[in-house]
Amino acid sequence: MGFDKEASSSSLVLKVPPFPREDTPLLAKPRKLSSQSKTFANVFIAIVGSGVLGLPYTFKKTGWVFGSLMLFSVALLTYHCMMLLVQTRRKLESTLGFSKINSFGDLGFTVCGPLGRFSVDVMIVLAQAGFCVSYLIFIATTLAFLFNYEYSSWDFGLSPKSLFLWACFPFQLGLNSIPTLTHLAPLSIFADVVDLGAMGVVMVEDVMIFLQNRPALEAFGGLSVFLYGVGVAVYAFEGVGMVLPLESEAKDKDKFGKVLGLCMTFISLLYGGFGVLGYFAFGDETKDIITTNFGQGLISILVQLGLCVNLFFTMPLMMNPVYEVVERRFCDSRFCLWLRWVMVLVVSLVALLVPNFADFLSLVGSSVCVVLGFVLPALFHLLVFKVEMGWKGIVLDGCVLVLGVVIAVTGTWSSLMEILAPKA
User: Fold this and answer.
1) 3-state class of 331 per DSSP?
2) Is 29 exposed, middle or buried (CB count within 10 Å of its CB: 0-12, 13-18, 19+)?
3) What are residue 3's phi and psi, to 5 degrees?
4) Can you tell me the distance from the alpha carbon of 325 to that of 323, in angstroms, rounded to the nearest whole number?
5) Mean pLDDT highest for which of 138-142, 313-317, 394-398, 412-416?
């Protein structure tokens, strides 16, 4: 039963969700507690996504040294904010006696009531849908690049990218009609294995091409592209919504922070290596999707097709939190086929309108991902801990909060200008 509880010496009213599973559970059902190795693997799967493919192009714009420093700084700040969420949930559950907080949205409701839940819901819908838009852009652009020579004569009034995107559309309608994640889990595992293999092959190819060509490189691209690079970097670490569910199913919760830190370090090194090697291989010729820089060789084609398969089967999983939010708000949490199809159509139409993959990564990262990853965790932590924190803690949370708002506003504007600017 729900009840209100007033935080000590504070006017903040913390509310317990009346239903323990009302919000957006990114992990569908409770599972057996995970070992440290399984927790590491789950965190890796939750974070690594399509954002890595835009890092070489980002490093071309920011410079490889500046880009690397920015990437590791964003990783450190992301880890800090993830731990703020964990600490806030533990405080509310253990010390203040609130009922089980299962997700980011539950936490928002507990701290800020319906407004907190609504804010998290909106950000999760925009972020997850944005990820799926980037998936479709990558799939359509890559297939158009691979088969352009065969299909360039096919007109129908559509570009090759549009043709491939609409060719995927009916299959995505079918995959997104599956009501449960259980049947999609094997596809997700397969997709992640393909993704890691493809990234490894790409990095090896990058090294070989660099040793042959040795293009001119820039270490620092200037402050004018700082916000652009931050947006892509924030997007690349896209798993903040999964942190609370993953911590809940960890067997040794006291070591969750250590496991999360190790995983974030490993992912940061992987991202940094992928971005730097991609830029080193092609220099100023680096394209927004790094795989389109490779020729038509068999290995290159297989890698690009593998990445397309990975994102094609990952899209229904990434859309699931969107469905959980919209079906809860408009259909009383009942499965609604037509609503899911409408969402797939909307995502496909947005993908048609966005010309550049990396530019879109920057837009989503600078806007909703910054709010989800930095602003809301710092705000929730500040509201719950402000009575017992010293001035240093309050200043730290305040700085993260202000920094997140500044990056969100200025980065979104910068990314929109980049997308709308005429291309040479």
Assistant:
1) coil
2) exposed
3) -155, 160
4) 5
5) 394-398
Tokens 């010309």 locate to 355
Question: Using 50, 70 and 90 to split pLDDT, how confident is the model at 372?
Answer: confident
DSSP for 83-124, written as a single string = HHHHHHHHIIIIIS------SHHHHHHHHHTHHHHHHHHHHH
The C-alpha atoms of residue 369 and residue 219 are separated, in whole angstroms, by 27
Of 359, 378, 366, nearest in space to 77 by CA: 378
DSSP-derived 3-state class of residue 142: helix
CA 286 remoteness from chain centre? 23
The enclosing H or E element of 74 equals helix 64-90
Provide the 10 A C-beta neighbour count for residue 251: 13
Q: Which of 334, 416, 355, 336 is nearest to 144 (CA)?
A: 355
What is residue 356's DSSP assignment? -
Q: What are phi and psi of 296, to 5 degrees?
A: -100, 20
Indicate the pairing of strand 13-15 with strand 4-6.
antiparallel
Confidence band for 27, pLDDT divided at 50, 70 and 90? very low
Residues 6+ away with beta carbon under 8 Å from 350: 129, 133
Question: Could you tell me which of 219, 211, 269 has the C-alpha nearest to residue 61?
Answer: 219
Alpha helix positions (H), 237-297: 243-248, 256-282
Residue 42 or residue 397, greater confidence: 397
Rounded to two decimals, the pTM is: 0.75
CB-CB contact of 268 with 234 (8 Å):
no
Q: Give residue 343's pLDDT band: very low, low, confident or very high (50, 70, 90).
A: very high
Max avg pLDDT among 16-25, 77-86, 226-235: 77-86
- The structural domains of the chain, ordered by start, are 32-420 (1.20.1740.10)
Closest CA to 271 of 232, 236, 308, 226: 236
CA distances from 334 to 21, 268, 337, 340 (A): 14, 39, 10, 12
Listing DSSP states for 187-246 in one string gives HHHHHHHHHHHHHHHHHHHHHHHHHHH-----S---GGGHHHHHHHHHHHS--GGGHHHH
Taking only Cα atoms into account, the Rg of the chain, rounded to an integer number of angstroms, comes to: 21
